[in-house]
Inverse folding.
């Protein structure tokens, strides 16, 4: 059974810092991995999707990497801003399209 | 274009009542998913539809839960005889293909069972 773990559960950083969020999964037979952002009381916003054949994806200040063999992904956020404060969720797709989510990392960026 | 929409945005009901939650996927998306987000369980898969194929119901927690998708578009999630543990945010997502595409989520329906 696929299990997804995110570390840390919460993170507080000063504005301008670069930071890394971690995601690990137990079953490496995945189709893809997706990173989401969730603001309080809101739905999920897709940030990046990495196919199993890819090593990384970039969008603006965000960079996501995937090491399928070791069951790890990281989300790198450069030059963090207060508007980046949210919960970040990692989800893997390894069976028929349904996503298995981690518990999320709650990020707070202080001005 | 329009994203995934869900209604109602909030629903308060009494234990034992039935509720229906609606999802309108992005136009043209063939795959539709339901997930549930609760404090104790995080985000968990419930059911998904792909075109005319039989739905994958493997995530439904009990036979009180059912879902249908009419005309390959709108979907309704029905919870019969609601229980307090059904209180959660129910999220719908859609994608253009089942396995390889980004899933786009709606804002969710917040269900509170009293």
């Amino acid at each position: 059974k696929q299990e997804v773990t995110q570390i840390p559960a919460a993170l507080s950083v000063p504005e301008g810092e670069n930071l890394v969020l971690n995601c690990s999964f137990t079953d490496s037979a995945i189709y893809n991995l997706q990173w989401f952002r969730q603001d309080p009381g809101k739905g999920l916003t897709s940030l990046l999707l990495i196919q199993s054949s890819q090593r990384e994806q970039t969008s603006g200040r965000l960079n996501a990497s995937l090491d399928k063999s070791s069951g790890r992904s990281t989300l790198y956020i450069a030059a963090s801003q207060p508007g980046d404060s949210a919960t970040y969720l990692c989800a893997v797709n390894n069976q028929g399209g349904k996503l298995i989510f981690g518990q999320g990392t709650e990020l707070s960026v202080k001005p | 274009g329009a994203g995934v929409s869900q209604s109602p945005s909030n629903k308060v009901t009494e234990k034992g009542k039935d509720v229906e939650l609606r999802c309108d996927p992005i136009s043209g998306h063939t795959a539709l998913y339901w997930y549930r987000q609760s404090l104790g369980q995080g985000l968990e898969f419930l059911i998904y539809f792909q075109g005319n194929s039989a739905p994958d119901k493997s995530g439904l927690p009990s036979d009180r839960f059912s879902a249908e998708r009419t005309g390959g578009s709108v979907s309704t999630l029905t919870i019969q005889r609601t229980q307090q543990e059904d209180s959660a945010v129910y999220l719908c997502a859609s994608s253009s293909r089942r396995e390889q595409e980004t899933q786009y989520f709606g804002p969710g329906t917040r269900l509170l069972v009293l």
Remarks:
- Chain B has a mean pLDDT of 92.
